[in-house]
Design a protein that fits this description.
This protein is α/β, with parallel strands linked by helices. 37% of the residues lie in helices and 20% in strands. It contains ten helices and twelve strands. Helix 1 crosses helix 9, helix 1 crosses helix 10 and helix 4 packs across helix 5.
C-alpha cells in the first residue's frame, strides 16, 4: 500500500484525492491519498507529518498554501529545481534523506502552453503575488524567456523583494521591479501585458466573492488571464476577465499537470493525464 497525502490550510473540497485515486487505478497500484490540514502557525503538526515520511508511514506528501516555504527547514535537501525556485510542493524520501521538490513550475508551464489560444506574440507577463506559488510561476516564465513584473500588496513588498533577489541574477532585465497591486501603480503598465497570472489565494473557497484585480483598472486588450485558484472553477477574477472579452484559464490544468509529475516522482509510474482530467470533471 502506497500512502500519500497533501499538507495545507484550508483544504476544503480538495480535488487531490480524486486525482490520485484515478492515477493509482490507471497504473494498477494499490494506494491512498489523504488530506492533512495544518494551520499556518502549527509547526509541530508540520514536523509530525514530515517525520511520518522518515519513518516510512507515508511514501510522499504534496505541500500547498501556506507551507511551501515554511516546510523547507524541516528537510534534508532540495532538488536543483526546488532550490532555484525557493519553494517546494512535493516531499519524498531518498537514501534516508527527506527531499523537497517542485512540480508546480513545469506543471504551470505545460498547461499554459495548452491554454494559450494561439501562443503569444509578445512575452510580457504580470504575476500577482509573491508567495510559494508565485515563485514557481516566475521561475517557469523566466526560463521560457518571458519578461515578468510582480504586483503585490503593500504587506508583501519585502517578500517580493526577496523573490526578485533570488532570481534576478539569472533573469537580467527581464525581471522588472515589483509594483503595488493598485490601480494607480498598474495603470501605466498594463497595455503591454499579454499574460496575467493570479498566484494569490484571493478568490479561493470559502471567500469566493473577492478578486485580486484592483477596482477601476481596465484589463489589457488581447491578454490571457490565468488564475491558479481552481476552487471555485470560475473565480470572480476569471468572471471579470471574461466580461472584458479575454481568454481565460483556471488552475485545474496546472493541478493535473503538477499532480501527475508528483505521482511519477513517488511511484516511478506515469499516470495518463486524460484519466486524471476525467476524474476532476466528475460531479
Amino acid at each position: 500500500m502506497i500512502r500519500l497525502g497533501l499538507i495545507g490550510y484550508p483544504l476544503s473540497h480538495s480535488l487531490s484525492p480524486r486525482l490520485h485515486a484515478a492515477a493509482f487505478a490507471a497504473v494498477g497500484l494499490d494506494g491512498e491519498y489523504h488530506l492533512y490540514p495544518v494551520a499556518p502557525d502549527d509547526n509541530a503538526g508540520l514536523a509530525q507529518l514530515t517525520t511520518r515520511i522518515r519513518k516510512g508511514e507515508l511514501q510522499g506528501l504534496n505541500v500547498t498554501i501556506p507551507h511551501k516555504q515554511t516546510v523547507i527547514p524541516l528537510l534534508d535537501d532540495l532538488t536543483p529545481f526546488a532550490q532555484a525556485i525557493g519553494a517546494v510542493n512535493t516531499l519524498f524520501l531518498k537514501d534516508n534523506k527527506l527531499i523537497g521538490h517542485n512540480t508546480d513550475a513545469p506543471g504551470f508551464l505545460s498547461d499554459l502552453h495548452k491554454a494559450a489560444p494561439k501562443g503569444f506574440s509578445e512575452k510580457k507577463a504580470l504575476v500577482l503575488g509573491a508567495g510559494g506559488a508565485a515563485r514557481a510561476v516566475v521561475y517557469a516564465l523566466l526560463r521560457d524567456d518571458w519578461g515578468v513584473t510582480l504586483a503585490v500588496r503593500r504587506a508583501d513588498v519585502e517578500q517580493a523583494a526577496a523573490l526578485m533577489a533570488s532570481m534576478k541574477r539569472d533573469a537580467g532585465d527581464r525581471f522588472h521591479h515589483p509594483v503595488l497591486l493598485e490601480a494607480g501603480e498598474l495603470s501605466p503598465l498594463v497595455d503591454g501585458i499579454r499574460l496575467i497570472v493570479n498566484a494569490t489565494p484571493i478568490g479561493m473557497f470559502p471567500v469566493v466573492g473577492n478578486s485580486p484585480w484592483p477596482d477601476g483598472l481596465l484589463f489589457p486588450r488581447c491578454a490571457v488571464v490565468y488564475d491558479l485558484v481552481y476552487n471555485p472553477r470560475e473565480t470572480m477574477f476569471i468572471q471579470q476577465a471574461r466580461a472584458a472579452g479575454l481568454h481565460t484559464a483556471s488552475g485545474i490544468g496546472m493541478l493535473v499537470e503538477q499532480a501527475s509529475l508528483s505521482f511519477e516522482t513517488w511511484t516511478g509510474r506515469v499516470p495518463p493525464r486524460d484519466g486524471m482530467f476525467a476524474a476532476v470533471e466528475e460531479k
